[in-house]
Amino acid sequence: MEGYKRWVREKKEYVHSFETLSTGLMWVPPELFSNSEIVPEAVTTILGIITTINAHIIETAPTQDITGSTESYSFPYSLFLSVLAGLESLVEGVAQHYYGDNKKWNFLVVTEATKVLVRLSLFRKSGYKMLLSGMETSNDDTNSISLTSQDQSSLIRFGEMEPMTSNRVDQNHQREIAAECTMLSTCRVDQNHHQEAIIDPPVSVTERPTLFDILSKKGLCGVLCFIGEVLFITRPLVSVLFIRKYSIRSWTPWFLSLAFDCIGMSILSLVATSVAGRKERRIYLSASEKDEVKRRKLLFVLYILKDPFFSKYTRQKLESIEKVLEPVPVIGFLTAKAVELIIGCQTRYTYISGS
């Protein structure tokens, strides 16, 4: 395995070229979305998993920069979630082919429950921060080492006073400085005998905040952020459970899933734009968190592709547009292919679930 990792990192240009060629060839078979054809779906899934693993190997390549390295986990959460997301489509296709449309939801419940448990564990280990990249990556952004205005003003005052105090150092202070230098030299000798302490700085053992810490430090804003993130994480599982109970044609799962997303986005907008109290500090979003918020807002478009909304409204609109543009030579052909592709994707719940 180590040899394969080394080969991928050394030949990553060839790996990317091969993956691009393989992905392009998989669009050739017209039976890609057929319910009876499992082989094209399996090949597509395998190629996707290989691409995900190779990308993970390249991204996790060891570097010489120790101070700027982020915290890593013993369990590859991001890789596991990406692989599981790729397998979910294949699981749905196989279950639908061999067990029917009704019993396939049992398998989807298992896959969604697995993703929810892994994401909740990643959410806890990341210090109850917003999950990024489609809830597959932990949020390692931290502002704990940034200087506040008081710290900066203290440093400025120290810089202004330093030339004045340097001329007034007495002998006792000089002896104190010499003693400190001796202690520093002793520490350097000890560090040479313990190289592992240099490689693993004490920052890595910092305790992560608990729910009590969030409640005590951030107050209502912290609790609302926690509730909103839990709603985003558990929404796919709740949606599949209600579809399994009421069927895909029912409006109950559709409205319930939409309610989860609306409440979560409302909570996030509330805590990011207002102050919960006089002593509460406004919660600011980092650049990566803002990108994740934009991605979550785009997921609302998927609701027009979900049944029963798609069957009653969206599909009729698409077919009418296709009929209007059909006489046009090129545009009509492209429109027909686009409508066919949308309808084919809509037959698989995992393609439009937004999970």
UniProtKB/TrEMBL annotation:
<feature type="transmembrane region" description="Helical">
    <location>
        <begin position="254"/>
        <end position="276"/>
    </location>
</feature>
<dbReference type="GO" id="GO:0007031">
    <property type="term" value="P:peroxisome organization"/>
</dbReference>
<feature type="transmembrane region" description="Helical">
    <location>
        <begin position="220"/>
        <end position="242"/>
    </location>
</feature>
<keyword id="KW-0812">Transmembrane</keyword>
<dbReference type="InterPro" id="IPR013919">
    <property type="entry name" value="Pex16"/>
</dbReference>
<keyword id="KW-0472">Membrane</keyword>
<dbReference type="Pfam" id="PF08610">
    <property type="entry name" value="Pex16"/>
</dbReference>
<keyword id="KW-1133">Transmembrane helix</keyword>
<dbReference type="GO" id="GO:0005778">
    <property type="term" value="C:peroxisomal membrane"/>
</dbReference>
<keyword id="KW-0576">Peroxisome</keyword>
<comment type="similarity">
    <text>Belongs to the peroxin-16 family.</text>
</comment>
<protein>
    <recommendedName>
        <fullName>Peroxisomal membrane protein PEX16</fullName>
    </recommendedName>
</protein>
<keyword id="KW-0962">Peroxisome biogenesis</keyword>
